[in-house]
Prior knowledge:
2 domains
Amino acid sequence: MNESDAIIFVVDDDAAMRRSLAYLFDSAGWQVQAFESAREFLQRYAGHAPGCLLLDVRMPLMSGLELQQELSRHAITLPVIFLSGHGDLAMAVQTMKAGACDFLEKPCKDQVLLDAVTRAVARSVEESRHAASANTAQSALARLTAREREVALLMAEGKASKVIARELGISDKTVQVHRHNTMEKLGLHSAAEVARLLMAGGQI
């Protein structure tokens, strides 16, 4: 995952504003998808590409705030930047508390908007990389048996085979077999590598 994979999603019921924002981001080299309503975005968003959501606050049927809440309910972590034609401090605080990256007032200078998008995309790409790493680690760890996973966790703590054998109530030779099988299944060569994989998979 990197910035070139990112998509800037624009949701605004003002057609002229959508065209203007799409042109700005396209000219800056970003991929852009524009939607006239929050519901249209929800229907078409695939949920896999990194990027950010540039969101108008006041829209008919479903407001930007309501869309933010809907994304949260579905555990969609796409960074959100709000654009509002009405400077409202209470609303800005509310959106930021709910996890928005930025709250900008219309009209907004192009460079300010581009800088905000760059920050949001960097955050999204990092989150996507972390999620991909976690998924890869979890898939690898799923190949281990329950006993191999116990041995792997103790290996990650730096414990010697004799100590692991004593803690698990099995022979040293059996631990050696489990260590060998664990390393082979995971394609790793050291306890430190096992520890990093377990951390990536959220096991420790």
